[in-house]
Amino acid sequence: MRWLQTLRFLLTVWLAVEAATLTGCWGSKDQAASSADLAEYRKMMDEQKKQQERLEAATSSAPELTAEEHERKGDLDAQAKNYPLASLHYDKALKADPSRNPVRLKLGQVFLQQGLLDQALAHFLDLQTRESESASVHEGLGQIYLMQGKHQEAEKALTKAITLNPASWQSHNLMGLLYDQQKRHAEAISSYHTALTHRSREPNVLNNLGLAYALSGNYDAAIDSYEQAVSAGSNSSKLYNNLGIAYVQRRRYVDALNTFKKAMDEPRAYNNLGVALLGINNAKKAVICFEKAIELNPQYYEKASENLRIARQAIPNTPGGTTASHTAEASSCP
Asked: Please, are residues 240 and 229 in contact by the beta-carbon 8 Å criterion?
């Protein structure tokens, strides 16, 4: 059912990994890319190429820098999340001095940050032949394989990374994500806890731990982990969505609505609450929430009305036109 698909969409994993010199978010897809996805990817690649050409032209007339200077500029651009320019400087640093393997690692990470997995994989595989005992190299390979859905390769690479550097919270977090994708939630929870022993207040890990608990049915533990992530300073909309859904599972509807409001505008917050209520088979109360979303923003009708129709149909022996006052368990939402 569509509402169930929407609920699964709301249960979004915050797939975030902080590399040695970079911080960013990434996600993996459960299914193969559609033709629209591929078209969007090609468009991104074309734009990347054009931007690279513009950057090349803009810097061609500038005095040539040393490899060290290019690396330093690349670091500054990477910190500013200007990844195309960072990759240009790292590439020039390597051309000036091909022996700089740390620059190869940074270039691979920059490609990874942009979602350019083929380029990133090529660099990390090249690095693997040069530095086979580098934990960072195996961690990068594990991340790429995880994003590509290659679970066996990802587990092998991450196991190697953890063996080489047991204190890497990033590797343990990635391993947890891998286990979650394989529905091995107990092992995922263990990996996240290990990650937290090395990075106790990392919001990314706390969010992922919360979701693993939620997927295991332990919503009290999930709420505790999500709330710790909020206390650690995170204001991610995905985190608030996850926390709101966990509150609904524990029938804490007011808390859920207030949490959804932190992630989105009020009409959408009521709509999301309605979807989450459908997830626990409370269609009567969901009807009121969907109607409230439409009342607050009539322009939102097209999106919320379909959910409202589904909620009304989910109420046994209830005519499609019955008003909320006749079908709801309470007179308000929540």
From this structure: no
**pLDDT tier at 297 (50, 70, 90 boundaries)?**
confident
Alpha carbon distance 228, 231 (integer Å): 5
Identify the residue whose tokens are 């950057």: 55
pTM, two decimal places: 0.78
Whether residue 19 contacts residue 105, with contact meaning beta carbons closer than 8 Å, is answered with no
Distance CA 248, CA 268 (A): 16
Coil, strand or helix: which one is 18? Answer: strand
3-state helix, strand, coil in the chain (%, to 5): 70, 0, 25
At 42-77, the pLDDT tens digits run 565 566 666 666 566 555 555 689 999 999 999 999
> 312: Cβ–Cβ under 8 A, 6 or more apart, which residues?
283, 287, 318, 320, 322, 327
Whose tokens are 């109420």? That residue is 315
Can you tell me the distance from the alpha carbon of 151 to that of 182, in angstroms, rounded to the nearest whole number?
Answer: 8
Residue 199, helix vs strand vs coil: coil
How far apart, in whole angstroms, are the C-alpha atoms of residue 112 and residue 100? Answer: 19
Nearest to 83 by CA among 55, 41, 102: 55
